[in-house]
Amino acid sequence: MAYHNPVLLFESVDGLNIDPKGIYVDVTFGGGGHSREILNRLDKEGKLYAFDQDKDALDNEINDDRFVLINENFRHIKRFLRFQGVKKVDGILADLGVSSHQFDEAERGFSTRFDADLDMRMDIRVGLSAFGVINKYKEEDLSNVLFQYGELRNARAIAKEIVSARVENEIITSFDLKKVLSRFLPKSKEHKILAQIFQAIRIEVNQEIEVLKEFLMQTIDLLNEKGRLSVISYHSLEDRLVKRFILNGKFEGEAEMDFYGNKYVPLKKEGKLIVPTQDEIKINNRARSAKLRIATRIKA
Predict the structure, then answer these.
(1) What's the confidence (pLDDT) of residue 110?
(2) How far does the chain reach from its first CA to its final CA, in angstroms?
(3) 200 with 237: CB under 8 angstroms?
(4) Residue 45 and residue 289: Cα distance in Å, rounded?
(5) Which domains, from first to last, does the chain contain?
(6) 186 Cβ contact partners less than 8 Å away, ≥ 6 residues apart
(7) Which residues touch 65 (CB under 8 Å, ≥6 apart)?
(8) Dihedral pair phi/psi, residue 189, rounded to 5°
């Protein structure tokens, strides 16, 4: 089984407008699909750095003198590139979310399909797991997670049910959680609602929103002038952040203005939002919710 089927492979790499002699970063290495395509477009002077916090991704490391794989969370992109002697790059690619491999490995606890321990950590070295969120969080905090990250209107009722059930017995596995929440899961909507619940817990466990914000802010310092940012997201929370950051250089409010009232933004949007074709979705169902946004660094 393939580790991961890269989504919008050519579109996202095309978006980097690659200089064969340039320096590039793939912050979500996974199975290495995007990285291999970037390397195909570099000559012997080019360089590619890749990040992945999941130790399983190390099995896919590419044997190439132009390539360096860093087993760290991309929220630390600037620091670990500095360790490599790199201060500026010509392009950064991010394919956000969970890899197909992580969904398909039952014991990782990402999928609603398997009865596995509640884990959902992308980096198993990190302390907080899905078990901790479900069994330790206060009802109000759990409700906030489900509402903000799962966009569940009945988040309070779901949180109350979880807290009530765990008094009797700890909720240990994904099927334990499904059983506890059975009254919220009508057959016609079971998969959709479970997906929202699992998404919310996973985002909390991995601090995905905070990580994305920290990463995007660092791209401004890292990108050379005319350097490209190419980001694929899979849910509206991520996509809104990426869109606002590209348009306004910040996540909330309007863009900064100079003395003359001119809008200052560090990035320029390139083209329109790109989504997968129906043909790609047929081949790779995971692509169905993907959105690609591309931007160019205006001033470095």
Answers:
(1) 55
(2) 42
(3) no
(4) 36
(5) 9-100+208-297 (3.40.50.150), 109-206 (1.10.150.170)
(6) none
(7) none
(8) -125, 10
Q: Which residue has the tokens 């099927």?
A: 175
Angle of helix 208-222 versus helix 236-248 axis, rounded to 10: 30
Three-state SS at 176: helix
Give the type of residue at 123.
D
Lowest mean pLDDT among 103-117, 192-206, 222-236, 257-271: 103-117
Neighbouring residues of 227: CB distance < 8 A, sequence distance ≥ 6:
88, 89, 90, 91, 92, 296, 297, 300
Give the confidence band of 80 by pLDDT, cuts at 50, 70, 90.
very high
Q: Reply yes or no on whether the pLDDT at 238 is more than 90.
A: yes
278 pLDDT above the threshold of 90: yes
Report d(CA 78, CA 65) in Å as an integer.
21
Non-local CB neighbours of 3 within 8 Å, separated by 6+ positions:
30, 31, 32, 56, 57, 59, 60, 99, 100, 101
Specify the amino acid at residue 239.
Answer: D
Kindly report the pTM of this predicted structure: 0.90
DSSP codes of every residue in 58-107 = GGG----TTEEEE-S-GGGHHHHHHHTT---EEEEEEE-S--HHHHH-GG
- Which amino acid appears at position 257 of this protein? M
DSSP structure class, residue 293: E
Whether residue 4 is predicted with pLDDT greater than 60 in this model: the reply is no
Write down the pLDDT at residue 123.
Answer: 83
How many contiguous H segments (helices) and E segments (strands) does the chain have? 12, 9
> Which 8-state DSSP code applies to residue 299?
-
Residue type, 115: D
